Structure formats: structure tokens, C-alpha cells
């Protein structure tokens, strides 16, 4: 036990030392020549590994952007300052999954625990972004009695519009989609803000509501004993929480199912994320209930669903397909060796590293034989590109799918396939993810040599098994219905209401 305690103490000291060194490096300035080497390194890795780098931008234009960026690097910068210069060029590639990781300050375990014992400051509000304006649409704890619909004009005397313009350059959707940015930016705005400004205990916000300006002071309050007990209770994983994929941070479920009427004619499934956790059981139980109820209509809601598991959407499609289908086309790679560049040992503890070392030959063997070459291109073997049979409880009725600019990645893959197969009516607005596929799958995590900024590069070109439109846009709805900020504040849902009214109309005419 004494030796074990010494090992734990040594590991803790090593971890603290590593965090200190990282934060010192994050605050240090890097010379211009070294930064230019980082730019060249990033571009070279993208050219070697990304299977569709010039999908939305020509090589000539991208070469020019990288060269132009290098011309602007004429003084030393911190990694964070460098991030704000390089990431806009990465965003110009217009691949929504492709982004540098912002070099945030790291915290020790004791610092993290101290933060966990305090309430959030900005996260206790819900937000809406329109153009260069940031609005509060939800005040979860009635802080300062700030009303939904209040615009945040400035934070600590700096106009919010300046932040939005700066952060908007860091985000790209797939292709020339225009709906994604505002949805995603409202969720990550304060990730960028705190990376720049740190976790402070107070902030002054200037607001505008009904023509009246007012200034409030926000505080990072300590949690009460009841708050901490509630946190512990929320973290418990009950069977219901597992199947519906409970998220303690937001006190909500990733998956929900219910009938919308007393006679169970209309079933409704809300999927916030294709997380895969317990999804097989969720769909098995859900579609069994739908079949037993004899439902005629099914609404699937993937609004604000940023994607996730390919396995989950393939499984979901098996409950909707009337006949055998193939969900995606063969997934292309840049080369046969790229699957071996996925940072196999990344974030491994000493024990995990030892275990993975023993399993590494098997991993190399499996990855090597997971690729094949056809017509001069390299592909990766995937279950979702093979014929799949409909599930025995596959739904036979009419399907509506709700989509918006927050429907991204896997959400766009499945909705593009549903639309192409004429298996569902899509209602809402253009998805944030591309109609013709995306580059993701698994990643190679590259670290720029001098700034030490992480650059995850997606290695697989994943495309739905459809005839491509080549519009370089998201999945277009069959019926366009938009949602305003006031709708959200008033808890109205015009997109869902349109579907309900359509179903009611059809039932009356039968």
C-alpha cells in the first residue's frame, strides 16, 4: 500500500507539472519563422491525409490563402493569437468537421473540482444569434429577472458584435450552406469567449430590452448543498437514463419517444445526438411499441442534432426501410496507410498504454486488411456500405422528419437518404451538413510542432448512397417552415405544428 501511495503521488505531481508546462507554453510567444513552419506543416498533413480537400475550394485558391497567411506573420504570437489567424483559413476549406482545437488553459484536478462546486455564469442562459446580435431566450435561474428576448450588447464594455464577427470566421458548415453557423455559434460562443478571457467570477453585461438599456453584474455563485446533492442524483445512471441517453450537464435526454395523440396514431421520436449509447435497445423497444399501437404516422425530429454514430443511423434506417437498402457508398481514404495514423495510443493511461501495446499488432493487422483498392482509389470496409435488411418491426406508415440548420453530419446523411428514397417528407429548413456527404469517420490528431495546437483530420469520405446533386449545399426540406426567436420564447413549434396539421387534414379526408 505504501508503494501504491507513492506511485499515485508521483502520478499526481507529474500531472500538475505537465499542466504547468502546457500553460506556460500557451502563454509564451513563438517566433514568426516557427509559426510559418506550423502553417506549412498543417497544410502538408491536410494534403496527405484528407480524402477530399479541394471539394469546396480549388487547390489554387487554397494555396493562395495559406501563402497569404504566411505573409501576415511578421511578429511573434502566442498559440492563442496564432489560432485566431490560422483557423479562419482552415474554415475556408468549408469542411464542417475540420477545425483546429482552440488552445485553452488547462486546469488541475483541484481547480476543476472548485469550478464544479460553482454555478456557471454564462451557461445558465439560453441564447439565440441573428446576424451580429446575441439574444437571451432562456433564463434558467431567473438571474436578475432578465427577460427572454433581451439582447446582450456588450460584455465587460466590449461590443458583442465584435466577438460574433471574430468567432463567425472560425466556423464553417459543409460547403456553401448558410443555416449552420448561427445554430452552432450560439452553442460555442462562450467556449471561444472563455478561451480568450478565462473563467472569471464576475462579468458586466450591457443589455437592451424593449428599447431600454440596462447593465447587470453576473456572478459565478457557489453551489448550495442541495445543488451538489442534485448533481450527484443526476449523475446516477438508471435503466431509463441509459436507454434514453441522459445528459447530466443539460439535464435532458438525447433520445425521447412518445405518442402525440390518445389513440397512438402519431408517434414522435426526438433524437438530439446519434451517440450510439444504448441506441439498439432504444429503437428495439420504441418500434415494438409503435407496431403494437398500430401507429399510422411517425415524426422523427433531428433538429439541432450535430450527428454521431454511423452504426446508429444505419440501425434507425432499418426500422424505416420497406426493402433491403445500402445506406452509404464505399468510404474513400487518401491512402491505404491513413487508418494507421489515428493516434492509437492517444490519451492512454500507463495501464492502457501497456495493454494497447500488447494489442497493437492485432490492431495493425485489422486496419491493414480493412482497406481495398478499386479503380485507382482506396476505400475502407464499412458495415453501412453493405446491403441491410429491414427490421422485422420496421414502420410501414408515413414518415415526417424535422430538420434545421443544426442538423449536421450523420443527421444529414440519413435525411439525404430518406429524401432520395422518398421514404420521408422533410419539414423545416436546409440542414447544416451537406446533402452529398462529409469527411469524418475517424481522425488523425496532428499536433503543430511549435504552437502545439491540435489539428484533428477526418480520414473518411462518407456519402449517402444516392445520386448526388452537386449543389454543395445542405439537404433541402420538401416543405420549408422557419422558426423565429419569438416562437422559441413563446414555446411555439411551427415546424412540428405544420406536420400535426397535415396529419389532421389527412385523417379528416379519409
UniProtKB/TrEMBL annotation:
The keyword Protease applies. Transmembrane segments: none annotated. One of its GO terms (biological process) is proteolysis. It holds the Pfam family Peptidase_S41. GO terms for molecular function: peptidase activity. PROSITE patterns: PROKAR_LIPOPROTEIN (PS51257). Residues 220-241 are annotated as: Disordered. InterPro entries: ClpP/crotonase-like_dom_sf, Tail-specific_protease. The keyword Cell cycle does not apply. Keywords: Hydrolase, Protease. Residues 236-482 form the Tail specific protease domain. This is C-terminal processing protease CtpA/Prc. It comes from Chryseobacterium lathyri.
Amino acid at each position: 500500500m505504501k508503494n501504491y501511495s507513492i506511485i499515485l503521488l508521483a502520478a499526481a505531481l507529474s500531472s500538475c507539472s505537465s499542466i504547468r508546462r502546457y500553460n506556460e507554453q500557451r502563454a509564451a510567444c513563438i517566433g514568426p519563422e516557427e509559426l510559418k513552419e506550423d502553417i506549412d506543416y498543417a497544410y502538408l498533413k491536410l494534403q496527405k491525409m484528407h480524402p477530399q480537400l479541394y471539394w469546396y475550394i480549388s487547390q489554387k485558391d487554397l494555396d493562395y490563402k495559406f501563402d497569404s497567411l504566411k505573409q501576415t506573420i511578421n511578429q511573434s504570437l502566442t498559440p492563442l493569437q496564432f489560432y485566431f489567424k490560422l483557423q479562419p483559413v482552415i474554415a475556408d476549406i468549408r469542411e464542417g468537421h475540420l477545425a483546429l482545437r482552440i488552445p485553452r488553459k488547462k486546469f488541475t484536478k483541484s481547480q476543476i473540482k472548485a469550478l464544479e462546486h460553482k454555478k456557471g455564469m454564462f451557461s445558465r442562459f439560453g441564447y439565440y444569434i441573428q446576424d451580429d446580435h446575441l439574444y437571451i431566450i432562456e433564463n434558467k435561474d431567473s438571474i436578475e429577472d432578465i427577460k427572454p428576448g433581451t439582447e446582450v450588447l456588450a460584455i465587460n464594455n466590449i461590443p458583442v458584435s465584435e466577438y460574433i464577427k471574430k468567432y463567425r470566421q472560425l466556423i464553417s458548415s459543409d460547403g456553401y450552406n448558410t443555416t449552420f453557423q448561427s445554430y452552432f455559434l450560439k452553442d460555442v460562443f462562450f467556449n471561444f469567449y472563455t478561451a480568450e478571457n478565462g473563467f472569471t467570477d464576475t462579468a458586466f453585461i450591457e443589455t437592451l430590452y424593449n428599447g431600454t438599456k440596462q447593465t447587470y453584474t453576473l456572478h459565478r455563485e457557489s453551489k448550495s448543498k442541495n445543488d451538489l446533492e442534485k448533481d450527484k442524483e443526476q449523475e446516477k445512471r438508471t435503466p431509463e437514463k441509459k436507454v434514453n441517453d441522459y445528459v447530466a450537464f443539460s439535464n435532458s435526454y438525447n433520445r425521447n419517444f412518445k405518442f402525440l395523440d390518445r389513440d397512438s396514431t402519431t408517434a414522435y421520436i426526438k433524437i438530439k445526438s446519434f451517440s450510439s449509447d444504448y441506441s439498439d435497445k432504444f429503437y428495439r423497444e420504441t418500434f415494438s411499441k409503435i407496431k403494437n399501437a398500430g401507429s399510422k404516422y411517425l415524426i422523427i425530429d433531428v433538429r439541432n442534432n450535430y450527428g454521431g454514430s454511423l452504426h446508429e443511423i444505419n440501425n434507425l434506417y432499418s426500422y424505416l426501410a420497406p426493402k433491403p437498402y445500402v445506406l452509404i457508398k464505399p468510404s474513400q481514404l487518401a491512402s491505404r496507410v491513413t487508418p494507421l495514423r489515428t493516434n492509437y495510443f492517444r490519451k492512454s493511461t500507463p495501464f492502457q498504454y501497456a495493454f494497447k501495446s500488447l494489442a497493437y499488432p492485432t490492431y495493425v493487422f485489422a486496419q491493414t486488411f480493412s482497406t481495398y483498392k478499386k479503380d485507382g482509389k482506396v476505400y475502407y470496409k464499412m458495415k453501412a456500405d453493405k446491403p441491410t435488411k429491414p427490421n422485422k418491426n420496421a414502420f410501414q406508415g408515413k414518415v415526417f422528419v424535422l430538420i434545421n440548420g443544426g442538423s449536421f453530419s450523420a443527421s444529414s446523411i440519413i435525411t439525404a437518404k430518406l429524401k432520395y428514397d422518398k421514404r420521408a417528407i422533410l419539414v423545416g429548413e436546409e440542414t447544416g451538413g451537406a446533402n452529398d456527404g462529409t469527411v469524418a469517420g475517424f481522425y488523425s490528431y496532428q499536433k503543430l510542432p511549435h504552437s502545439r495546437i491540435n489539428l484533428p483530420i477526418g480520414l473518411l469520405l462518407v456519402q449517402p448512397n444516392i445520386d448526388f446533386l452537386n449543389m454543395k449545399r445542405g439537404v433541402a426540406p420538401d416543405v420549408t417552415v422557419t422558426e423565429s426567436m419569438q416562437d422559441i420564447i413563446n414555446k411555439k413549434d411551427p415546424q412540428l405544428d405544420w406536420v400535426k396539421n397535415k396529419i389532421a387534414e389527412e385523417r379528416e379526408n379519409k
